[in-house]
């Protein structure tokens, strides 16, 4: 086995531990500053505790009002209970690092006192800081000061204690630079843990306001760099061991990210960014920002977050609560339709076929195909009387039913009614009865409606069906599919073929959603829902009867039915997110889509229906597309959202823009921006180019590897840092050769690598710290092999089966999408890359510390030894 290891010529990360200890007067100044900030932080937590105590006691009082009273008063009580519970969750969610920054503004800067600046529950004025110390202001000469934190807090006298990070005034904290200070003199990052201030880091922004002084109050400060904000805090965040859950970045949002976070919520905002550029983080902070900026609208309509997998959604689930927001509905495309689970799997190629826009036409044809005019009159015998269903009557009934514009199953009702009337006329004439008498007509109609002949013939003309039933027929009957989808090749149709009763796959779900629109609820579905309701009511009554008996509540005053009514009357106590999640036709105020490059046109159509105002944040990376061929542009990928390609007729506008942008910006260059009014939906594109996760050596290897496979990233990124020995490539002999006790050479190398990386992590961050992922095309087999080693099996044992919680996880490249680990052990990258270059790109760019490649086959260049 040969091992190559490349170390860039860089110093290790300047983690706080690695910095030289302060000595003498500097250390004393530092301690003084920490003490000053500790008093402020104590004040902020005191305020948080006060608000929490108030909310808890309000909730207790509300709940003590009991379940009695009028329907309206119960509704009000439930609404208050939901409100206070939500408030408590919000306040509990912001406990960690409640305050993380301080802004010293120029005393003469109008922005410092601008009305509404502190936002949230603030009254707007930039108030004098509580617990101020003379040493904190020093040479600045009494500037306005604001403490920036997760939520806005005021004291009982309505003085600002903490400025909400989303307030307009707080933009300077994230965006001010020496060349554009935005009224900011100094930016301070305050590092806290469990309510204790551990350190402060200052950046001087506006040196002129200090009269040229290089330090403030004896506290050393560095001049603000034009590139990164809060570099020390940023590098510390990037170097921290991963714990299986994404953290927020609220303390260190960079200027290019902040501009995206706070962009207006209208229209479609596309954020294209290479691996680790903070797209997910930015999207989540943007949700929190939009809730702040448009609270009234979004609290009524809600926000939908779409992620690539349930694992990914668990990975990010802590971020929004830590930003004080809890009301977001998160889902995968596979879980988009309430009550339907996609448990099946299929190849990326088959999923791609199902995602194509043509299905809108094909499915419309399929539904129309359920409405048929018979070739000739169809005989029907009702109570011994011979009638016929005539093609002309069917045609007329159809055109009347379609006129209403209702979906198929709902339009069936007027269709059937009209035909019943015609058959009633025939029956009355044949039996010489008075067709003008309403009573006579009613019983004749009922006889016809319940006759088997009539039911069968009418159903053949207008078949009621469910989305699942119709889709199953489409996949199971090749002749039907060929008739309805001549656009597909024979091989494509064959790929779609599936036997009846097979599990639905995630790519089926947008098709089910489309069919649900076209079909509407079927009688069957309605009847099933009614049956479920009835059963639930029976259970409730039984439960209530038991409760009455066991607690002696009865005495003739409370009946089981009354009690059941109260228990069942839980409508208002559901949160908005719970109601939205359960309702397929819910329309959201904003939709955020992560890993958006994966969605096909049908998924976009389904999402467009959920947000008719087309307020979207779409984040993704075309180079991370899972499959053989990525979409060539975001316009192409998003066409189904109602955005049309621009009329330049040639090269993709993004690529065009990107080319120009890359020429214009430096290594840690800025962003791209294009605003276009396309179709009816304004589309705006931002590009992130700085990678905060992956060390530069690994990132460059990933770029080279996919380029050598013919897919160079159109939007490459530059990493903010590099680490020594962050890329190791272990080449082993042919996979079949045995080595040692029974395993192949490849197995031996993987086992060794995992053990070595565990030991290295033990040393770097402690025995429980950090996360390692083994990424391979056949994860189950590798998990079984690794589990044969007791220590590795223990490291893979996830509490509650949550793969993100285990220190060692084994997964395929697609599952690793959006996640990150301290170390990735990547098995046979050549095989992954040949199947899908985007998957290789994803897998190679997951680590924050080291990529360890194990290969027995040919390697893409970038991974070959130098
Ligand atoms: N401003 C920042 N401060 C601190 N950490 C940051 C910042 N921006 C991004 N990060 C960190 O970088 C890592 C990558 O971020 P994120 O997952 O959002 O990137 P991404 O663009 O969605 O990546 P990918 O497409 O590769 O999944 C995360 O650990 C995130 O916390």
Automatic annotation (TrEMBL):
Residues 252-695 form the UvrD-like helicase ATP-binding domain. The keyword Nucleotide-binding applies. Keywords: ATP-binding, Helicase, Hydrolase, Nucleotide-binding. Residues 659-674 have a biased composition (Basic residues). GO terms for cellular component: cytosol. GO terms for biological process: recombinational repair. SUPFAM superfamilies: P-loop containing nucleoside triphosphate hydrolases. This is DNA helicase. It comes from Actinomyces gaoshouyii.
């Amino acid at each position: 086995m040969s091992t190559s290891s490349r170390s860039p010529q860089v110093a290790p990360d300047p983690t706080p531990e690695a910095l030289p200890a302060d000595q003498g007067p500097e250390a004393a100044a530092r301690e003084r500053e920490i003490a000053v900030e500790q008093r402020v932080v104590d004040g902020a937590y005191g305020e948080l505790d006060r608000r929490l105590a108030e909310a808890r006691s309000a909730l207790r009082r509300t709940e003590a009002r009991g379940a009695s009273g009028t329907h309206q008063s119960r509704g009000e009580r439930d609404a208050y209970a939901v409100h206070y519970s939500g408030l408590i969750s919000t306040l509990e969610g912001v406990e960690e690092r409640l305050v993380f920054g301080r802004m010293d503004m120029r005393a003469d800067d109008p922005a410092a006192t601008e009305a509404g600046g502190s936002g949230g529950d603030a009254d707007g004025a930039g108030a004098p800081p509580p617990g101020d110390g003379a040493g904190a202001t020093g040479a600045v000469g009494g500037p306005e000061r604001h403490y920036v934190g997760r939520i806005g807090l005021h004291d009982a006298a309505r003085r600002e204690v903490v400025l909400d990070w989303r307030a307009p005034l707080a933009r300077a904290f994230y965006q001010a630079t020496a060349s554009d200070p935005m009224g900011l003199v100094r930016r301070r990052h305050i590092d806290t843990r469990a309510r204790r201030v551990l350190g402060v880091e200052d950046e001087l922004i506006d040196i002129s306001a200090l009269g040229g002084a290089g330090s403030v109050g004896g506290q050393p400060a560095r001049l603000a760099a034009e590139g990164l904000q809060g570099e020390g805090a940023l590098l510390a965040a990037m170097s921290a061991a991963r714990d299986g859950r994404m953290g927020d970045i609220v303390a260190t949002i960079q200027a290019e990210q902040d501009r995206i976070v706070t962009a207006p919520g209208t229209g479609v905002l596309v954020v294209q960014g290479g691996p680790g550029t903070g797209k997910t983080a930015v999207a989540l902070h943007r949700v929190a920002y939009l809730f702040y900026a448009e609270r009234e609208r979004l609290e009524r309509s809600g926000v939908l977050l779409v992620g690539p997998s349930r694992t990914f959604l668990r990975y990010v689930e802590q971020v929004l609560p830590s930003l004080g927001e809890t009301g977001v509905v998160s889902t995968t495309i596979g879980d988009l339709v309430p009550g339907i689970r996609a448990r099946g799997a299929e190849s990326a190629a088959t999923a791609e076929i199902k995602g194509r826009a043509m299905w809108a036409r094909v499915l419309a044809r399929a539904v129309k195909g359920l409405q048929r005019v018979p070739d000739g009159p169809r005989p029907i015998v009702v109570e011994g009387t011979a009638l016929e269903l005539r093609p002309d009557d069917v045609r007329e009934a159809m055109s009347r039913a379609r006129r209403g514009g209702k979906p198929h199953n709902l339009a069936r009702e007027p269709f059937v009614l009209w035909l019943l009337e015609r058959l009633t006329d025939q029956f009355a004439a044949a039996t010489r009865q008075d067709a003008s008498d309403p009573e006579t007509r009613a019983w004749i109609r009922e006889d016809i409606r319940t006759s088997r002949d009539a039911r069968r013939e009418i159903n053949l003309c207008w078949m009621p069906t469910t989305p699942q039933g119709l889709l199953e027929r489409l996949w199971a009957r090749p002749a039907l599919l060929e008739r309805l989808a001549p656009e597909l090749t024979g091989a494509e149709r064959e790929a779609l073929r599936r036997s009846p009763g097979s599990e639905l796959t995630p790519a089926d779900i947008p098709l089910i959603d489309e069919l649900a629109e076209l079909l509407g609820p079927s009688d069957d579905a309605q009847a099933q829902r009614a049956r479920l309701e009835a059963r639930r009511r029976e259970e409730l009554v039984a439960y209530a009867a038991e409760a009455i008996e066991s607690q002696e509540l009865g005495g003739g005053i409370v009946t089981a039915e009354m009690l059941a009514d109260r228990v069942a009357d839980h409508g208002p106590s559901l949160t908005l997110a719970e109601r939205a999640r359960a309702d397929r036709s819910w329309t959201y105020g904003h939709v955020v889509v992560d890993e958006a490059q994966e969605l096909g046109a049908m998924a976009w159509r389904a999402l467009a229906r959920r947000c008719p105002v087309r307020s979207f944040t779409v984040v993704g990376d075309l180079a991370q597309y899972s499959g053989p061929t990525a979409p060539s542009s975001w316009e192409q990928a998003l066409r189904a959202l109602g955005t049309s390609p621009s009329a330049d007729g040639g090269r993709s506008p993004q690529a065009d823009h990107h080319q120009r942008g890359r020429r214009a910006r430096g290594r840690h260059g800025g962003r791209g921006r294009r605003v276009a009014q396309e179709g009816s939906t304004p589309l705006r594109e931002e590009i992130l180019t700085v990678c905060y996760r992956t060390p530069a050596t690994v990132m460059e290897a990933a770029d080279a590897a996919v380029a050598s496979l013919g897919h160079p990233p159109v939007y490459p990124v530059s990493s903010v840092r590099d680490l020594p020995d962050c890329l190791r490539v272990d080449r082993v002999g042919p996979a079949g050769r045995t080595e040692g006790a029974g395993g192949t050479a490849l197995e031996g190398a993987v086992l060794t690598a995992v053990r070595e990386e565990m030991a290295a992590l033990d040393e770097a961050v402690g025995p429980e710290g950090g996360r390692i992922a083994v990424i391979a095309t056949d994860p189950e087999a590798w998990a079984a092999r690794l589990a044969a080693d007791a220590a590795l099996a223990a490291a893979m044992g996830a509490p509650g089966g949550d793969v993100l919680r285990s220190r060692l996880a084994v997964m395929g490249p697609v599952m690793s999408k959006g996640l990150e680990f301290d170390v990735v052990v990547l098995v046979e990258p050549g095989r992954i890359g040949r199947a899908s270059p985007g998957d290789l790109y994803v897998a190679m760019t997951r680590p924050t510390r080291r990529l360890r490649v194990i290969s027995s086959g040919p390697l893409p260049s970038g991974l070959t030894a130098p």
